[in-house]
Amino acid sequence: MSKSRISREDALAFHLEPSPGKFEIKATVPMTTQRDLSLAYSPGVAVPCEEIAQTPETAYDYTNKGNLVAVVSNGTAVLGLGNLGALASKPVMEGKSVLFKRFADVNSIDIELDTEDPEEIIKAVKLMAPTFGGINLEDIKAPECFIIEQRLKEDCDIPVFHDDQHGTAVICAAGLINALHISGKKIEDCKIVLNGAGAAGIACLELLKAMGARHDNCIMCDTKGVIYQGRKEGMNQWKSAHAATTDARTLPEAMDGADVFLGVSVKGAVTQDMVKSMAPNAVIFAMANPDPEVTPEEVHEVREDVIVATGRSDYPNQVNNVLGFPYLFRGALDIHARAINDEMKIACAEALAKLAREDVPDEVAMAYGRALTFGRDYIIPTPFDPRLIYMIPPAVAQAGMETGAARRPIVDMDGYEQTLKARLDPTASILRALHARAKNAQARMIFAEGDDPRVLRAAVAYQRSSLGEAIVVGREADVKAKLEAAGLGDAVEELKVVNAAKTEYLGEYKDFLYSRLQRKGMDQQDVHRLAARDRHVFAALMLAHGHGDAMITGATRKSAHVMELINHVFDAGPKDGAVGTTAVLMNGRIVLIADTLVQEWPDENDLADIAERSAEVARDLGLEPRVAFVSFSTFGYPVSERAEKMHLAPKVLEKRGVDFEFEGEMTVDVALNARARAHYPFARLTDNANILVVPARHSASISVKLMQEMAGATVIGPILSGVDKPVQLCSTGSTVNDILNMAVMAACKVK
Ligand SMILES: NC(=O)C1=CN([C@@H]2O[C@H](COP(=O)(O)OP(=O)(O)OC[C@H]3O[C@@H](n4cnc5c(N)ncnc54)[C@H](OP(=O)(O)O)[C@@H]3O)[C@@H](O)[C@H]2O)C=CC1
Ligand SMILES: CC(=O)C(=O)O
Ligand SMILES: [Mg+2]
User: Would the pTM count as exceeding 0.90?
Assistant: First the structure.
């Protein structure tokens, strides 16, 4: 079981770049003209205001209320870190907001309230409730959280849901249903010990008891030990409800012979001796975050028969409320629910448990880089399972409709499932699949520019993400100093640093280079300079000699220049069939643009080559290629000599009999918009194009950079293809993540 290491520096950099924090707000309506302004604001905005004043329900139609959730905290129980206060809880709350968006397309905003007074929180949330379709309370400590949630549920007509209580309870229940299924035990027979009598603990035990666990078989513990009948110290009414009739007074005593341990307390609360004392085929859910009560390694060191889950994403069996709150709210919002009731929660738990028992699609297993079959290491779906979005919310919505929580029932459940599927961002799964393939490849990646701190950080991330071995070209002392300056001093020992001047293979490399360049005006001295002093050439030579499996460069020099250098070692020029394809990712769409790197002014045959190479790249990305040859004219009009080659290129492909769709020439709107294409019913594309072959490199560069600068599109590439070995170039403006993504692309091509 591999555990990826995240350093403090990684975590801080992630939150700092590209802009502080984790999300921003974007307009969904045009805001460009005077007319837009008049509609969005005064006077046009008065009309929906009046409508809503007359019929409040129409707020769901004319405002973003119906898809907006507030994540509210006061920071008194931030994960398992304790009372860090409102401000310091903000990263977690922003995190919940981005999880809402990523997993269920729910818009959400974090609100941190600087008070520990329940009355103030109740008042604040009540006052803000009209804005939202739901309220997700988060990391508010017990027992205040019980009072706050109860009062708000009574007073608000939208779902108020304390995630740490019910989100956790739902996932814990789903996981336990399956864990007991595997260990062959019935919940009513199990001796259950729960450590942590706070928000999560009380809610988990309540739900398990509702599902059949017997009060007499359950023991709850807190900082004072076992909560037993008659205990006086550190009690409250919620704990009293679970006080056990038992002689056990400490956690170790309680755990002796237990079938199930549930931890929602703090790091390290459970020892290996306690694990040893549990019943055969015991179940341990160590859910404290970020560090569990006991790690899976510690458990497996002393017991092989135990089923272990944690709240973390880097171990199998992540029992974490991230599997619940996005989908519970999605289902609730879609029926304009008044509340999230117990039936909706139980429906969610059962749907999650059922999903884990179903066959796992290959792409999910691939994204995780391991087989996922229902069993000890897979008792609960993984957070990136794309089926969650269309399998869990319908179950929640159905339960809400059956129990009177729905203001607007869904009439067409099949249609609903389709709309849920459309909410998934396909680009995210593409990137994940690439990372999984790279992980399988375990490529030795040569990072040519070891003098650049971004490259070094990407190399460390490559190695620490278990993608393969990172080989850095540079001088040891310089690499060490730069890693230390980046706060990654401990990574010095992990990376393999290759100093060109010292390598034993330099002679071999120079001979190879001389044989290629002697008739191209280069003498021995030129070759020495290139091989020993130019890191791009040196890295390419390493790759050519099998001293690495793939290489990544281009972060410090213009790509055209780097291509010239690489051409000394590999045949990567326009006449060799090399092509650069750039992937542009935006609003859930992905479009490849080519050639962005090699061919400056391709003719129709080159354009056909570019289409073929880009089709291969598309397939590598998991896309079915649909090529459009784009220009300023569509199917011959307006007539122009300049567009002629775009008109001819499809005919070249026709003759070649390729196995993908293509069409042209056409303008970009015809390629990317079905309505525009409808004017040309003879066009052979069955759907929008996903590859745009453009007339020349300048138009390619302009299109990509325009999308990047004006629209904020994510750009991957140029992805170089048609070279004998996997070489990828990033651009001088690349971030650490961009460089890592390009390394991943290169690794995916390693055979
Ligand atoms: N995996 C997941 O999805 C989730 C995990 N959690 C985790 O659960 C933990 C608790 O969160 P939450 O319920 O919101 O917090 P609360 O502050 O509401 O409750 C914490 C509880 O833990 C008890 N506790 C603290 N230290 C110990 C200890 N050493 N031994 C026994 N009990 C202890 C406290 O006891 P006392 O009452 O005596 O003070 C209290 O009852 C956190 O680590 C959190 O990260 C929470 C939600 C979801
Ligand atoms: C996961 C979560 O909500 C917590 O640990 O508090
Ligand atoms: Mg929480």
Answer: no
